[in-house]
Write a structure and sequence with these properties.
- Helix content is 34%, strand content 15%.
- It contains 13 helices and 13 strands.
- The strands form four sheets. A seven-stranded antiparallel sheet has the order 4-3-13-12-11-8-7, with helices on both faces. A two-stranded antiparallel sheet has the order 1-2.
- It starts with a helix and ends with a helix.
Amino acid sequence: MTSRRDFLRLGAAGLFALPGCAALSGASGDRWTRSQLQRAEEIAKRNGGKGWAAWNGRSEAAGWQTSEHSQALSITKSLGGLAATRACQEGWLQPGERVADTIHEWKGDARKQRITVLMLLQQTAGLDPAGSALYHGVIADKGAVAVSRAAVDEPGTQFRYGPVCWEVLAELLQRKLQARGETLESFLHRGVMRPVGLSSPNWRADRKKRFYLSTGAELTVSDLGRLGRTLGKLLHGESVDGFEAGHFAEISRMSGANPMFGAGIWRNGGAARAGSAVIEVEAALDPPRSPGFWQQSCLSKRQPASMAALIGSSGRRVFIWPDSGRIVVRLGVSPAWQDQPFLNALA
């Protein structure tokens, strides 16, 4: 069986300047030294590097080819999380509502009728991930494909990474929006992209022109920095860009099946647990791991437990330090990319 990563692997130098000071401070006193940023830049350029940048709040501390753009791949999932947050604020979506109340094809299926919106955002709905079915070429109707996938686990018990939960979420939002006289695409622009300050002219879509929520938004390094700043403030409990922190906290809640993941965001909370192990997330997704594996894992032992990350295949990354307002973005095209050398350089 072909894995999700097989469909996402894509085949793929400029001037670097640092401010004159020897170190740069974040909002809470955390500091990156000149040598840390230089080491990070060296690593960011390897393995098909296309661009990178580091920010203290809105101030760029270092950067290389920040206007470089690329398909953000699974970083797109976090936009789906923001879309769900906006929908909850507008009163027409609830994290705990049953998906089958809108997707009526699921009524009568003992497992599917118990799936909630939050389970989709946590990727614990129990559905067959459907990587090859949803990503093989341009398909006619991704929503129909996603809704038809079998439930292979009891809802809420197992984390399975893949596109199906996000495309079911897209179909759910589209049906609710259609009843309100709007499309998912117009809602994403109105409710998510414009407030954050993003533009994606080449968003992956099916033949019905329906945007994918699991992958495919095309963004620049600078765009991803703006997305990281918005998410960082929300993770810190601050409302921003019209998103209410309380609603976001509900939407992005992690599960017992994987306490590292929620709403497209990976957390480093396990770094605070004794005996937890550092993992490379991309290498850990296929085949599915047990809840115990995720409960004993973390992104980095050398970074704070509050750090979070957006992870796209082949080395697309947004690292977020909510407590200090710092953001690092890296775009690249190589399955050989690993996070640990990069995060260690910034430790």
